[in-house]
Amino acid sequence: MAERFCETKSLFIHQLFTTIASRYDWFNRLASFSLDARWRRWAVAESGVRQGMDILDVCTGTGDVALLCAQHTDGAGLVIGLDFNEAMLKQAGQKQQARRLLVRWLQGNAQALPFRSSSFDRVFIGFSTRNLSDLKQGLCEMVRVLKPNGQLVVLETGRPANPVVRAGYFLFLFTIARLIGGLLTGRLWPFTYLARSVRGFVSPSEFVSFLKTCGTDACHIPLSFGLASLYIAHKRVVG
Predict the structure, then answer these.
(1) pTM, rounded to two decimals
(2) Are 212 and 124 in contact (CB under 8 A)?
(3) CATH number reported for the structural domain that contains residue 83 in this entry
(4) How many domains does the chain contain in total?
(5) Domain that holds residue 12
(6) How many CA atoms lie within 13 A of 156 on its CB side?
(7) Which H/E stretch holds residue 66?
(8) Tens digits of per-residue pLDDT, 46-82?
(9) φ/ψ bin of 14: left (φ > 0), alpha (ψ from -120 to 50), beta (otherwise)
(10) Helices in 83-152 by DSSP H: which ranges?
């Protein structure tokens, strides 16, 4: 039953992002009040990315985090952007050509990463953990490919502590953002799902608990009054 659910959700998510790939960046701007680019810069800065590091951006989408990391490494190191959706990777490749940065794009499954254990200094995932069919499995897989003392950096939509701000944000997602997305693409269901995935996602405390059970010491940093959440998880050294 669980396996069937995971497979069904995976197929649904693949169809969703194939449908909206060309509008994905636009929707992120709209849904975040144009703050998402700033949040990504914060995430990369907080992670301490520097030259010579091996970096993996999981569920890279249109490649924004991977390209930011490539700017920081300046060609001295390895940056890989992985996503299971070919249409999203195509958008990422077009950005790379325009910016002339060194990133390798790879099509693959976030919950079965095609890398050896302890391969990367940093692993990122941005605004995508709520799309995983098995959240804990996905997080543990990302921790697996981290080197000891490496960092998993998760940027995700938040849950504002202020009930008024939280209610207003959810109302915005289900009305204005959802309707504009539907008008521009002719399809309402992708934006209905995205709004529901934000509202129904686990709380920051639950997310930190998942990260700790995967073998990390994790902390939560709310961004912009809690509209976004940044999680920094250090892989524990065993033995």
Answers:
(1) 0.92
(2) no
(3) 3.40.50.150
(4) 1
(5) 2-235
(6) 29
(7) helix 64-73
(8) 999 999 999 999 999 999 999 999 999 988 889 999 9
(9) alpha
(10) 86-99, 135-144
